[in-house]
């Protein structure tokens, strides 16, 4: 067991004989000034507290687990929040409907309320046992001889839990751990994100609203949709095309279908003229009709998916060949992609290569499965970066080292509560997640889901299954039949929500800029901001958007929910009413319950369209008597030049009761409101 | 690759270096005269058609898969029936809600409509890929360049499927296959069951009705329940007690709780006097308060489950120590047990030992997990057998070689359609399954579920969650509050169904006797009886009970369903109406649709109570003009003496238009009905 400090907050621990083809090998080792300059921390475990051994089937690592600490993380776990008492085997899987560790984007990283984090550097289906069981005799507990467990609650009780975390990797002889320490759990997450390469800063339009159009739509239908958006003032920034744009899918030809889309250049012009960016659906499975099929063949795995080659993205050759076509599409003006079905849905009738696949790089199917999403993301992102462009794309799989990847996760699942939990859990593991809106059972459900998605990393309506926008008919069957709603009420409310999203873009852009620079997740669980307040530890249905906004979506029918407000004063965003913290309040509203922290200077934009040329018109809201400084970040909105310092950091502050407004190029302040 | 013929219908194929602690090692190698005498078959694969290789992660076996053959099996798969196009990783798991191979009782055995079967002799979480994917270039198919898959149906289409079965076992260097051939798929299943040791013959009362009483019930409440059964003429043969009978659960003390049950002997007398057998709940996790805890300790795994020891049932010492207490309970008169939570619910907050456990026999956690249910079954069954007694118990886990085990599987899941599919799928793999009835959303649902369960391997009402019998109130909350239904209508219909079950016991006893002797599953999919009729290949919602009865439960609200009748004439059991086969009919009835094959001589009993002393009073129904011979089987109903030939096989036949009735001791025929 070798321990080596890599950064003031990070140690590497080598246990046994580690594998070569790990995430760190492919994605790690990035330099980061911020990380070097963090305050020195002490190693969070006592000497000898971590142990490891080879077993007949693999490698077992054990770490201590205190009765009073709580664990979070493991990536996009939609079914659970606090991980204590659970056993999970991480496996990339599209059908992650059980709380077993299967996930679109499982991440072998967890954090503790004791302000440490553990990253297991593996691409294996690693198993985590968080005190779910106890070793015989090693962990005695009170044995209450009279207790009869006949109720589920008793069976799940905490006192039955063990005091060890066990990490088991099958078929290996060792592994490397990265151990993170911090002043707080939030700082641990920040260290992990910086260690991954820092967070992502989206292009400005990426923070706007995305509409994915009907699967079978042709060019004419897409163009008339664009016209409707303009005519009906629906403020979208991105338009997504589904598989039908390609001449062959699934698997993909990566070529326009000349029947459906006879003039892609004209389409692109029209999209840009309408002030939108185009997002194209794809899958990383390459059909024989793709121009680069034969060239890719030697750099592919030995099993097909949907009759397509699976590129071995661990090889630079595969990344180049696949990336070249991506680059061509970017050169025609594509702003983003939707990277579908890269999440190992191998139990859905073989929508994935098997674990026993082999890839020419030496990766086996299990490794390739877990790293596949991350590797495709990097391959595509590099093509944007070579052109000095950012993207803000969609993807259905990820693993560790996700923070710098300009992709937001999504799912075919559709439980509203799980979708909200996903926002929180993604924030522990360097991931971004979107609770996308599709069809709904009622207009009310449509609005409730819209309220959540506009307050999430990616604001998207995914209408791939319906010919008409869901605000004209939320019901999938009636929509298909062209039976539309009689009033525009739903559309009007939907428009307001899309505008609400746009209003928050300057605030969000600053939050993402801090994500990029300091690793602070822009969307996160309350426990990261209020670790001392035990009442927030289990809250998985409200979250922080940036530092100052508490978002508490209403998940079900009805207009009310209970919201816990942590320490400090809070203002209802809609009414301006002030509440003291450390209490539960009942929010009764048709809006989404939003609470602004006292002391916030909140910029709100009134822009209808968000493009690379946008200059923001702002209302500034000032909450409480002791406003903290806040910042507005300005750059060219779309290139990577900010990495070379081409970015302005404007401070907004209240001095002697007056808002001091710096001179800015891309922000104009038209009004101020004060809340007391 | 070594191939060796073991029996006229069975070959063993040794591929690479096989593991030692396999199911065959523990459960196989039984002699069977019937198997020796089967007709010689030819090996079902061409020379070189089966291949195998070691990969970096395990061992991969491939077999050919024809486009026109269909595969079934893999144990208790509740989510799917035909396995073509699926990839499954078998893992014993209580929360088997996805179609991934997780199951209470996965079995590494499958059968083909081409009349062969493959048993993989492994206790590992083996993966089966049934043509889900294709190898690159090895399996060319038509590549339709214009096809755009935008609908789910297209994506699942058969033409995308590969022509190989792949079997992958991680972390091993080889495996043994047993390959079965037969005249028909049914004969293949029979061979597999005989190879496992032959089917089970339950004690006669095991074919009656079981009522599991309320969890917290005490002796007084249980005794008054018995009185109610007698007073209200509810014909039960077995009474089950839930965890509350023990002084400690979960894990178990295996001792009576002296507060709840001050006089177990008296209880036992009362149960027997009422004509019932007692079934006790247990878990194979041994709490410190069990008398044999210290003795068992050295023969246990290194992790606790619910603070209890996990016996290493691979060791004779563990079987003896655990079995001794079972034997003591049997000596007090216990007829059966319910063996709960032995099914690796390791993702439910650690309700199981981890895969990285070690057992003193050398078994690791993965092996122990998959064999655990089978091993506990054998341990308990041996205690009954030593006392020359049969049992018919309940269990929640199983694996291969299950046919001789006197246990019926059950689940906490509750989907009616899946429960019916379970009956069919269990029949391919030497398993028995019970779609138990618990609480219901409506009286109609209660009756529909009751209709299914009385036509299943074990007829059980599991009322562990409700203080009053569900026929007095099907709603769980109202039941708990003592708000009972105002009329006895539901109870009357329930009583009729329990009587219907009893009526079929002579018919079932004969079917089980054939299961025991010839391996013919008493409950099975239509495809086993009518393999030539392609219309039945996908039917997973109706099934054969014995040779002559087609059962087609109504799964949803309403009174109708479509039923496909295979070749031959069929008679509606209720109306006597005759239908021609090879057609779909609509069954409209408040009863369960049942169809009797033309030519059947069907015995129906009118007995209210089923005990070891039962003499059956029979009505004989004769369907059609050319009745086939049928049999009534008679023995002492409860001991193993039938294995020494102490069993009578009475032939019933129609000779010159008259039913010829043999002289029998335990059957009396009081009437005959003829259907034409």
DSSP strand content of chain A: 15-25%
Model regions low in confidence, pLDDT < 50 over at least 5 residues of chain A: 139-152
Number of helices of chain A: 15
Helix content of chain A: 10-25%
Cα(first) to Cα(last) distance of chain A is 57 Å
Structural class of chain A: alpha+beta
Overall shape of chain A: it is globular
For the largest beta-sheet of chain A, the strand count, sense and barrel status come to: 7 strands, parallel
Strand order of the largest sheet of chain A: 19-18-17-16-15-14-20
**CATH C-level category of the domain at 2-196 in chain A:** Mainly Beta
Rg over CA atoms of chain A:
25 Å
Number of strands of chain A: 34
Write out the CATH superfamily name of the domain at 2-196 in chain A: glycosyl hydrolase (family 31)
Q: Would you give the CATH topology of the domain at 2-196 in chain A?
A: Immunoglobulin-like
Account of the 3D structure:
Two copies of one chain form a homodimer. Chain A is 23% helix and 25% strand. Residues 139-152 of chain A have low confidence and may be disordered. The first copy, chain A, contains 15 helices and 34 strands. With 676 residues, chain A is an alpha+beta fold. In chain A, the strands form eight sheets. Chain A has a seven-stranded parallel beta sheet with strand order 19-18-17-16-15-14-20. Chain A has a six-stranded antiparallel beta sheet with strand order 1-2-13-10-9-5. Among the domains of chain A are: 2-196, Immunoglobulin-like; 522-597, Immunoglobulin-like, CATH 2.60.40.1180; 601-675, no CATH class. At the A-B interface, strand 6 and strand 12 of A face strand 6 and strand 12 of B.
């Amino acid at each position: 067991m070798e321990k080596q400090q890599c950064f003031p907050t990070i140690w590497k621990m080598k246990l046994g004989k580690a594998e070569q083809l790990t995430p760190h090998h492919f994605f790690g080792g990035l330099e980061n000034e911020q990380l070097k300059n963090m305050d020195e921390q002490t190693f969070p475990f006592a000497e000898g507290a971590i142990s490891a051994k080879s077993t007949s089937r693999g490698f077992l690592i054990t770490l201590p687990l205190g009765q009073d600490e709580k664990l979070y993380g493991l990536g996009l776990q939609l079914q659970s929040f606090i991980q204590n008492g659970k056993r999970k085997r991480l496996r990339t899987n599209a059908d992650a409907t059980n709380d077993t560790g299967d996930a679109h984007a499982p991440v072998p990283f967890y954090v503790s309320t004791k302000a440490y984090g553990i990253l297991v550097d593996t691409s294996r289906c690693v198993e985590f046992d968080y005190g779910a069981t106890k070793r015989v005799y090693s962990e005695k507990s009170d044995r209450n001889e009279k207790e009869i467990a006949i109720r589920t609650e008793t069976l799940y009780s905490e006192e039955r839990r063990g005091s060890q975390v066990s990490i088991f990797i099958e078929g290996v002889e060792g592994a490397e751990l990265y151990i993170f320490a911090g002043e707080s759990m939030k700082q641990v997450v920040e260290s992990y994100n910086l260690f991954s390469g820092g967070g992502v800063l989206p292009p400005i339009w990426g923070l706007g609203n995305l509409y994915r159009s009907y699967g079978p739509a042709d060019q004419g239908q897409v163009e008339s949709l664009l016209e409707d958006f303009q005519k009906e003032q629906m403020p979208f920034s991105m338009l997504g095309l589904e598989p039908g744009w390609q001449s062959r899918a699934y698997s993909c030809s990566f070529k326009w279908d000349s029947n459906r889309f006879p003039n892609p250049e004209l389409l692109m012009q029209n999209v840009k003229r309408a002030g939108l960016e185009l997002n194209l659906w794809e899958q990383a499975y390459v059909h024989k009709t793709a121009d680069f099929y034969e060239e890719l063949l030697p750099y592919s795995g030995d099993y097909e998916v949907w009759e397509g080659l699976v590129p071995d993205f661990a090889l630079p050759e595969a990344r180049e060949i696949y990336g070249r076509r991506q680059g061509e599409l970017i050169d025609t003006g594509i702003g983003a992609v939707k990277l579908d079905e890269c999440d190992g849905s191998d139990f859905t009738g073989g929508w994935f290569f098997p674990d026993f696949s082999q890839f020419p790089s030496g990766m086996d199917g299990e490794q390739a499965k877990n790293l596949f999403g991350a590797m495709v993301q990097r391959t595509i992102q590099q093509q944007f970066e070579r052109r000095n462009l950012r993207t803000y794309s969609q993807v259905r799989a990820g693993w560790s080292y996700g923070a710098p990847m300009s992709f937001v996760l999504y799912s075919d699942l559709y439980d509203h509560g799980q979708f909200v939990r996903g926002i929180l859990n993604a924030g522990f593991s360097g991931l971004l997640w979107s609770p996308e809106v599709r069809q709904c059972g009622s207009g009310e459900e449509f609005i409730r889901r819209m309220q959540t998605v506009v307050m999430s990393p990616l604001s998207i309506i995914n209408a791939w299954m319906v010919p008409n926008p869901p605000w004209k008919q939320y019901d999938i069957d009636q929509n298909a039949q062209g039976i539309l709603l009689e009033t525009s009420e739903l559309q009007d409310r939907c428009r307001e929500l899309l505008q609400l999203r746009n209003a928050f873009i300057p605030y969000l852009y600053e939050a993402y800029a801090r994500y990029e620079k300091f690793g602070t997740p822009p969307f996160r669980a309350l426990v990261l901001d209020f670790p001392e307040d035990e009442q927030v530890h289990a809250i998985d249905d409200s979250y922080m958007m940036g530092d100052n906004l508490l978002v508490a979506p209403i998940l079900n029918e009805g207009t009310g929910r209970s919201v816990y407000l942590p320490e400090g004063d809070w203002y209802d965003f809609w009414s301006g009413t002030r509440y003291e913290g450390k209490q539960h309040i009942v929010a009764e509203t048709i809006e989404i319950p939003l609470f602004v922290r006292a002391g916030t200077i909140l910029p709100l934009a009134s822009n209808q369209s968000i493009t690379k040329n946008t200059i923001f018109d702002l209302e500034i809201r000032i909450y409480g008597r002791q406003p903290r400084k806040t910042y507005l970040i300005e750059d060219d909105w779309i290139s990577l030049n900010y990495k070379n310092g081409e970015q302005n950091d404007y401070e907004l502050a209240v001095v002697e009761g007056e808002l001091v407004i710096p001179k800015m190029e891309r922000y104009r302040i038209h009004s101020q409101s004060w809340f007391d």
